[in-house]
Amino acid sequence: MARLAYLDRLRVGAAMAVVMIHVSAMRWSDTSPTSADWQAMNVYAAASRWCVPIFFMVSGALFLAPGRENAPGQTWRKYISRLLVMWVAWSAFYTVMSAVFLRTADPLFLLQHLWDGYYHLWYLLALTGVYALIPLLQRIVASPVLTRYFLILTGIPSIAVPTLAMAPVAGGLTADLVARVAPYLVAGYPFYFVLGHLLHEKGAALSPRTRTIVYAAGIASTLVTAAGTAWLSLSKGQPSGELYNYLSVFVVAASVAVFLLFQQLGGEAVTSPRLATWARWTLPIYLIHPAFVRIVQEFDITPGLLPGIIGLPLIWLAVLVLSTLVSAVLVKIPVVNSWLV
């Protein structure tokens, strides 16, 4: 069955946005929130937070398609084993890269970094946990009642914990109370997985009025994320990224709006060969781009050389182009293209 183009456009857009997040983070923590450069980093980062939720939502739309079934054994052999090999290999790559840049061969350093993985590789492990649930989720989404129940059951604790934790005084206590009863097996990113399925199947039928409300909420949420992060950081006298949480209610709203917007603009168009190629590059772009971000940092090519509002997009473009070129090569290498990208 041909895949709808908007899903692959979402993947490409999310890959571009995640590069912007990491480029924006290069000097985020050691730049004063009172500076224009930091505020530019904040705006670009806040406007890109939908990227990781979209990755999970697109996967959910594909894996939970009506009639699709994956047995537990098949899921582990075909998908999870690949993710685990990928994590080990890329963790080793970034461990070596860090050792070279830091000029160290300390065995404890190497083992610690190999075990921890580079900062962006958490996504592979999170995806592994979600994939382990695929055989269960496929049966849940076969029932509209169970699908709605699942979204309520997982959505409330998933979103409430990080959102309530930001409330003054009572926030921590309230979030702790919710956390005690949160169903951790399924709360979190599986929520986005099932939400992506539901929006893919039912989103096109939403009324124009409902879409307008969703888009307005998405825009407002992005503005709140940027303005709220600026306010929190200025009040604390240092960068504060609580509102950047991927399960913040504001990021959820922005992610839903982006998903529905791409769906509406894409309609029923199917993926073209060229778009399929670009979509195939998105995972390797995700995996390799932090290496170029690190190189930019090592050579001290920072947004500070130009006003942040200009410098950040230029560095983002350079990192994105280099990552895309490398990805185009990696997907053509036997074994590598099957197991590592």
Walk me through what this model shows.
This protein is mainly α and 341 residues long. It has one domain. Helix content is 73%, strand content 0%. The protein contains 16 helices and no strands. The model has no long low-confidence stretch (mean pLDDT 91).
Quick tags:
single chain; 73% helix; 341 residues; mainly alpha; globular
Write the layout of secondary structure elements.
Layout (H helix, E strand, L loop, with lengths): L4 H20 L11 H11 L4 H13 L8 H31 L4 H10 L5 H11 L1 H7 L3 H21 L5 H12 L7 H14 L5 H29 L12 H18 L6 H8 L1 H17 L9 H23 L5 H5 L1
Helix pairs in contact: 1-2, 1-3, 1-12, 1-13, 1-14, 1-15, 2-11, 3-10, 3-12, 4-5, 4-6, 8-9, 8-10, 11-12, 14-15
What is the alpha-carbon Rg in Å? Answer: 20 Å
Number of domains: 1
Summing up helix and strand content along with how strands pair, one would put the structural category as mainly alpha
Major β-sheet annotation? none
- Distance from N terminus to C terminus (CA atoms, Å) equals 23 Å
Bulk shape: globular
Number of strands: 0
**What is the N-to-C order of secondary-structure elements (H for helix, E for strand)?**
HHHHHHHHHHHHHHHH
Task: Give a brief description.
This protein is mostly helical and 341 residues long.
